[in-house]
User: What shape does this take?
Amino acid sequence: MASTDTSHPDYFHKVVDCQWACPAHTDVPEYIRLIAQGRFTDAYMVNRRSNVFPGILGRVCDRPCEPACRRGRVEEKPVAICRLKRVAADHKDEFRDRLPVVPEKKNGKRIACIGAGCSSLTVANDLMPLGYEVTIFEQFATAGGLMRTNIPSFRLPGSVIDEEISAIVDMGVDLRLGHRIDSMKTLLDEGFDAIFVGSGAPKGKELTLPGRQEGAANIHIGISWLESIAFGHVTSVGRNVLIIGVGNTAMDCCRSSLRLGATSVKVMARKPRQFFKASEWELEDAEAESVEIVINRSPKSFVVEGGRLKGMMFDVMEYGVDARGRITDERVTGEEFYPADDVILAIGQENAFPWIERDIGIEFDKWDVPKVDAATFESTRPGVFFGGDAAFGPKNIIWSVEHGHQAAISIHQHCQGKPVADRMPPGVNLQSRKMGMHEWSYSNDYSAVERRLVPHVSLKERFKKIDIEVELGFTAEQAAQEVQRCLNCDVQTIFDAKLCIECDACIDICPVDCLTMTPDGEEAELRTRLKAPALNVTQALYVSSPLMFTGRVMVKDEDVCVHCGLCAERCPTAAWDMQKSWVKWPHAVDQAT
Amino acid sequence: MTFIPKPKIAHPSLPKNDLGLTRRDYEGSLSTLCAGCGHDSITAAIIEACWGISMLPENLVKLSGIGCSSKTTAYFVSGGHGFNSVHGRMPSIAMGANAANRGLYYIGISGDGDSLSIGLGQFCHAIRRNVNMLYIIENNGVYGLTKGQFSASADIGTKAKKGEVNQQPPIDPVLLAMNLGAGFVARSFSGDKAQLVPLIQAGLKYPGFALIDVLSPCVTFNDHEGSTKSYAYTREHYEPVVEADFVPFKKEISTEYAPGEALPVMLHDGSRVVLRKLDDDYDPSDELAAHEYVQQHIARGEYLTGLLHCRPTQDSEFHALNRTPETPLNQVPFERLNPGAKQLGKLLARYR
Assistant: This one.
């Protein structure tokens, strides 16, 4: 096969599985190393550059990085990346003096952002230092969007949100709280140079079944109900509560119910557990609080007697599942009644734009959502951009942040009269970590320690108030152990075929047998005759150019390399080197300079 | 040499042998030799070979003398038995151990210094007595442990690291072993595991003295331009003539061999070594012809490699000649091993 083109910036980026999986491409191994050195503020700033809200995300991120983590393929569990992010945020010192300086003299361009959620705030964070004047319109009296209204305070304390938002607002953002935008047309008339719509996906899905109207007083839409709790409008709930749906919102609803006085909470799922949308750790946390998750129950009707909700009737379901785990058929085998004082619907949410007029050049598609470019986030009307859940429907905070970064680049281009599609490409820099014969400027030794568990407030204490944060964060000892589990995947193994004398030293020492010197071949066939067959085809083979003496090639299976550097230590000619990769993922500031 | 221990983790698709063991289970402690040392590759080849023939680790005896090579017995099969003897005296220990327990596999690791200088006499007599062992010489042409003086295997004209030219003729262990009547004589290269691993497997199974002279470049003192035992020189001047495949008992000899190419040599347990000729002119079963052929190539500065000479030697094998007991001495009852003071008195009386 062709020798690997490592000059393509994606190659080494992909080796850092966590960074590649992170929508905002956070340099995870770098900040974990900084935590290991006790440099918490530095670790926080590495995070902040990419994901803007490390304190928030360190608690509630959807963590696409963790399933991707190489450690999860070497042993059972990935590195607790998300919880380490919180360590950096909890232990940092003052960081505001490290934020980019916002120029006194503005560049004369005015930007409007609708909704003070994570995507709008990211746009402001990226554009304020470039001299833009950013105005954020927020319908509620507090900023934060769904982070504030939908995530219960026992998971994400308000003080954490306040700190990270104020760091952005204090750059001089014109934040108009309690200012709801009811007409796009009117806003357009105000003469902003660009408008960013970051209004989220605020509409919870309805479940239209018999009895819905009659029982309305005790049937609640999940995200609206969570919002009412966040603002103190709802302070109690019945003793028996049913949650319909089994996504992350459902998990927040059931745990909130327990804190508002419910004694029996059941989460009703239509399908078996492998089809649940909720993250595994959120399910675990709910179950730890004695929430019962009932599977294979499809809602049939609300049972209302004497004008009062008594419970719900469900169809009992049975599914046929094929070898690939997909549902092939479903059957109703009976029905079952579950009593309930309150029912909370958490079956999804949508974005809704009743306030955008349809005759102003912003086109909507057949599902009545605006047409948005996936790379530039521009709508069909130049100068109007969408991001976060408002762009492509509900995702999560970290995706919204990345949307904000990308939209900020587009807004900058637009305001400078340049094509929005004209964007700086990503890049990678490499820098050797060699310090001496056996010395590397990273901790290359493999630590066999297992994943640490974050301590929680005891079950007895945590229900006393709704805003007692359940997770306590890692102790100093736990953090010190957990950081050592990181495999430093960003310290890349770099091979120079011209220097290799084919002595086999690297191949013999590699603990995970990921190196082979062999005659070249087609990739599929080559994978089978490596020292350990490379069966994980999602992971690349790093193939060298032909070697000097025998014309064989050096093949590295990236899959389970633990980046211990032993190949480079054993190499007598430094044909292998360990080099830190710095992925340059451009933001508006890079585009501007 | 490396400072951190090799992590105790493995690739999930690492193959297992008949005993359910992976190559990692045949490793020893971490090498303290120089990075890139040929000896480490030979160690890896031994690990691969033992794993490949599903050797029970406790059935292997590792013996060595003194030198860089002799350190390496610590670096493979930590579950085996080991004896690190006096300089050049490994063959004596091997012979004694062999006499006491013929049920084990014996592998002696030596170097060009240990075998061709201080231990030359021992080496010759081990061949002469046809001790049932695999004798590996890790041959780099220099005394690495004492900073790179020429050894007895240094070729005429080869240059030391500081430019000194060797003028004394080398002792070639392959020619010497053929002269002394060894039944299994091979030469290989640390950088060619495809050739070396089957040779080691065949040598371990061979009933009698098996010698593999492995060119093993000294990356610190003998890997420069002008050296005839550097990686570069060896790669350019080595010529495989007879490959050996080890075919375990039960397994059919595959029909992939070209006619006249495959020469099976039967081993005592029913397994076979199949010699695969790469050069039509060469006859590895003819000792005299082989000797001459090897010598001609040496004169041309070429390293002929492969199983250069192989013939069955059951009759002259050490155990047959010396009528050693089938039962290992550690399993013979104490009363039989020690006939008692009365019997000893009778025995001594015969010499009075």
In short: The CA atoms of residues 239 and 263 of chain A lie 5 Å apart. DSSP finds 23 helices and 23 strands in chain A.
